[in-house]
Amino acid sequence: MKKTFLLFIAFALFSSCKKTNENKPQTLKKLLNVKALDKDKDFVIFIHPTSQYLDSLKKTYKNEDDFYTIADDANYYTAEAGEYISKNNIDRVDAEIDKIIKIGKININLSQYKPWSLLLYAKGKVKNVYPIDIEDELPKFYGIKNKITEEKCNIEKALDLINNLPEVKNQSRFVDSISSNKKHLSFITDSLELNKQPYYIIKTGFNGKLHWETYTIFYINKNNCKEILVDETVSGDVISLEKWRKSNHNQF
After folding, report:
1. Distance (Å, whole) CA 55 – CA 57
2. Any residues with CB less than 8 A from the CB of 80 and at least 6 apart, and which?
3. How many whole angstroms from its chain centre is CA 167?
4. DSSP-based three-state secondary structure for 43
5. In sequence order, which residues have a C-beta less than 8 Å from that of residue 189 and are 6 or more positions away?
6. Mean pLDDT for the chain overall
7. Residue 178 contacts by C-beta under 8 Å, 6 or more apart in sequence?
8. What gap in Å lies between CA 163 and CA 185, rounded to an integer?
9. What is the predicted pLDDT for the residue at 243?
10. 95 pairs with which residues across the strands?
11. Which letter does DSSP use for residue 30 in this model?
12. Is the dihedral of CA 61, 54, 165, 223 positive or negative?
């Protein structure tokens, strides 16, 4: 899975501003509650930004909407990673970057890592990865088969999935802003068959008084909710969500 440029921009812009806590006393009061962290178990640590980090990061953007785009993307991919880890029955631990985690004789100072990243832990080994890479990294690190399964979709699941995409959230904010919150992003649904596979069609757009304006057309495989395709308006091709993101990151 490809890394999106937005996350890297956030990390790169702020890496020079991040303060470490390595010189602070590592008392038990400053340690994360470690009762769920067994050194003989496998788990994934989700590293979250502190409120102070977010406040400082926001100041690096001239346009506040750009900051919220970064945060929405990061939260979305973190949530996706959480679902994937849960399906693989691996424990999850949440901690902020100013915390120190103690696992047996190992002390892990999270301030040396980027917020919105993950630490894979197994038998004394630790690996730092990004949420968008979890489906590639987790099976290799833990030596397990990729347990991601095809998930049967219904239209409610498909709509919820599309509505929670960062790009669609940006579209929703755009419609709210141009209509002074009097109008909201609208959806039109349909079905079709592509390459002998059944798909839901979900169009996002603005439903005005005189006409409907389409923003994006998504295709969701009815047999696998994770398979999302997008209608590329310039070429007219139906392409993967990842490829579409590369060429349309500045659309909204």
Report:
1. 6
2. 131, 132, 134
3. 12
4. strand
5. 155, 158, 159, 200, 201, 202, 203
6. 80
7. 206
8. 10
9. 87
10. 47
11. G
12. positive
70 and 10 in contact (C-beta within 8 Å)?
A: yes
Q: Give the chain's domains with CATH numbers.
A: 5-142 (3.40.30), 155-247 (no CATH)
> Do 50 and 111 form a contact (C-beta atoms < 8 A)?
no
Q: Above pLDDT 90, what percent of the chain?
A: 34
If we measure between CA atoms, which residue out of 133, 158, 147, 129 comes closest to residue 80? 133
Report the relative pairing of strands 91-96 and 43-48 from DSSP bridges: parallel
CA distance 174 to 169: 9
For residue 121 the two structure tokens come to 């832990």
pTM: 0.53
pLDDT tens digit string along 90-135?
A: 999 999 998 888 888 888 889 899 999 999 999 889 999 999 888 8
Residue with the two structure tokens 């993967």: 240
Beta strand pairing call for 106-109 and 125-129: unpaired
- Cα–Cα dist 142/118, whole Å: 14
CA distance 144 to 212: 48
Q: What is the pLDDT of residues 37-93, one digit of tens each?
A: 678 888 999 999 999 989 988 888 888 888 888 888 888 889 889 988 988 889 999
The amino acid sitting at 139 is P
What strands lie across the sheet with 228-231, from one edge to the other? Answer: 186-194, 197-207, 212-221, 228-231, 238-240
Could you tell me the pLDDT band of residue 229, with boundaries at 50, 70 and 90? very high
Is pLDDT of 230 > 90? yes
Vertex 238: Cα angle to 9 and 201 (nearest 5): 100
Do residues 230 and 219 make contact, with C-beta atoms less than 8 angstroms apart? Answer: yes
